[in-house]
Structures are given as C-alpha cells and as structure tokens.
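Thread: DNA polymerase V subunit UmuC, structure

OP (GT): Posting the sequence first so everyone is looking at the same thing. Length is 418 residues per the record. Can we get the structure tokens written out before standup tomorrow? I want them in the notebook alongside the other entries.
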Amino acid sequence: MFALVDAVAFYASAEKVFDPSIRKRPVVVLTNNDGCVCAVSPEARKLNVPKFEPYFKLRKFLEQHNVVVRSSNYELYADLSTRMMNVIGRFCDNQYIYSIDESFLQFTGFKSIIDDWHAYGQDIRLAVWRETKLPVGVGFGTTPTLSKAANHAAKKLEGYNGVAVIDDDYSANEILAKMEVTDVWGIGGRLGKKLNMMRIYTALDLKKQNPKYMRKQFSVVVERTIEELNGQVCISWDDVKQPKQEIFSTRSFGERVTDVHDLKSSLSTHCSIVGKKLREQSSMTKQLIIFAHSSPHEDNFYKRSFLYEFPVPTSDSRVLANAVNEVLPQLFHNGVRFYKAGIGAIELVSEQFMQADLFTPTLNNSKLMNSLDSINKVFGKGTIRLASEQQTKSWEMKRDFLSPRYTTRWSDIPKIQC
C-alpha cells in the first residue's frame, strides 16, 4: 500500500501557524517581488480569488473582502516543511519527499498490522496538526498514482473528510469517475486536450484504455499511468537522488538596477548560491552562463549573456565570482534599467572524477569552502559571505508583506505573555 500526504494550501496554511488571529480569515501568498498570487487558503478560494493573477489587479478586491496578504516567507516554509515531513515519516517504513509539501509513503510490512486505513489516515492528520498546526490530506492507494488520486479525493471531493482509500477496483472507479483526466498525476493540460479529442474526459475513461495502444499514440509514460490506474505498480522513486546536470540561480530585482556595483553585488550572491549547491552534490562546473536583462515590456529591451569557460572545473564561490568580475564590463551598459540577472553552472562533472590540468594550477580551495559552509550551517545563512555581496542590498527581492521568520531568526521567535 502507498500513501500521499500533502498540506492544504501549504504556503497560506504556514502563515497561520504562528498567527492564530488569521486562522479563520482568507489568506493569499504572493510570488517573488510581490508579483502574483501563488497560494490561496480555502477561505480565500470561496471568494474565487484566482491563482497566478497579478497582485496589483486584485489589490482592491482583496481589501474589500478583508483578505490577509503575505509575501513569500521561504525561510518559514522550509522549516515547517522539515517538521511536517519528520512527523509523517514516523508512520511508514519508506518515505519519499516529493516536494516541499508532498510526501509519498510506502507500507511494506504494514498491511497485516493496519486494519482500518481510514482511521490510520486520520491518525496521521491529527499528529501533523498537533505538532505543526498544518492541515494535511491523506490518500491511500495500491499504486503511487492511485494514492495521488485518493489524495485528490481527500482534499477536493465531498464526503471524504481529509482521508480517502483506494484498495480495490470498486473504490478506484468511484473516485476516478469524479476526476477530470487532467487531475491524474502526469497528465498535463496539453495532453489532456488531446485525450479529450479521443473522448477521454475522466480518469476512469483513461483507466479503461488499452495501455499498449495508448503507448503507440502518446508515450510509455501514458502506458504506465494507465497500468497504475488499474492497480499495477510501474512507477517508483530512486533510492538515491540523482545529482542535477545544471544549476541556476536567477532572480528579478525588487527595484530596477542601474548601478554597476548593485549588479555586481547581485551576481556575486548568485555565485555563492550556485557554489554551495555544487558542493552539496559534490559537483564542479566547467562552464558558467552569466546574464542580465531589462524588462521585455520596456522600450529598447536589452539582454546580454556570456559563456565563461574555466580552465579547471570548480565549485569555489570565489572563482565563480572572479568570472563575473571579468565579464561585468561587457555585461553592464549605462542607462539600462536591469530587471533580472543570474548565473548558471553547466557541463557539470563529479568532484570525485574531476580531471586536473597538469599545466594550469587550480585556484580552488576546498578546505576554505568547507569551513565557510560549516560556519554558515551552524550560525545561520550569510554569516560569512563574499565581500562583493555586501556592497549593497538595494537589488534584493521586494517583500512588503513579509511575516516574521518565527523559527529561523532569534529576533522573530514568538513571545508568549502569561
């Protein structure tokens, strides 16, 4: 048996954990630079607040309905996610964290122990609520895809009260008949339109198709999805997460950047982020993409990018930042109002099998980088950083509605008065 446990409107629910005054109020969370609505609480959903709509278009509507608006508090969300996953992991013998708010569970030796999966699902929900104050939905299924479908029913279909179980053909058909085909895990909107043209409108319609025929029409992914809907396990997660083949760090600015030092500060910060991610997966990069551009909606759109090749692969943040210094004079242009900048490490190699150059001395200092990472892990992100990062903060992300970072900053720890 498999299960999928995920939080209900995770970002919005996380905002309510340490602020009981807004627990029954509608809440929306905005994307980077307070651009669009990315999360909507159940209360706000009843007001038909659309997701991914620009905030400036919805501002008056949200004010009229007394909706709480919050900027994305990534530090808080990451910490609450870790706590939630730790609680969920106690209820199974194999856990796979699929995203920041979703976790697959596998119960290899539990079938003979658990008599009532519905009751067990409620136990999971209650434990998560008691220890994190996050509402979750739980879906059980005989395959990962069916557990995902059951989770959809638990959260969005009437009569399931947060827990749904698919353990036979009857329970599967009952739920799949109420789901659109695009609600099936792995079936996107574009594929859904093609399936609709074949008169496949619901998940149950998809289940009834011939897997081999659908593979010829589409792909092996569709074939496996149909087999999973019929109770045959085809999809599994890797025991070891594969390292990324490319690592990028990009961000739009909170305010337009017109100063070369501000642009350098931003790119240096991206170098630190990419360097840290490279070291975390024991990789090095041979090439670095460095780019910056103005807004495509402004006149005289400006965009420049450079490909910098290292003589020796590196994961040293200082070496990455030196590459930025070399291309910055060609990247920056007076009069341009820069809207976004970033870097990308491509052509990655394993640190273990990195081939050194006999005639080119390396500038990498792995001991120094290990010390930097260790200190920042103990004392907090940014305790030690590149000097070029500290020149200015005017380019940082705009977060005018940011809530306190209750669990990651000493100054923001909740205070209780008795």
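GT: Both are above now. Quick notes for whoever picks this up: The chain has a mean pLDDT of 88. Residues 260-280 form the longest helix (21 residues).
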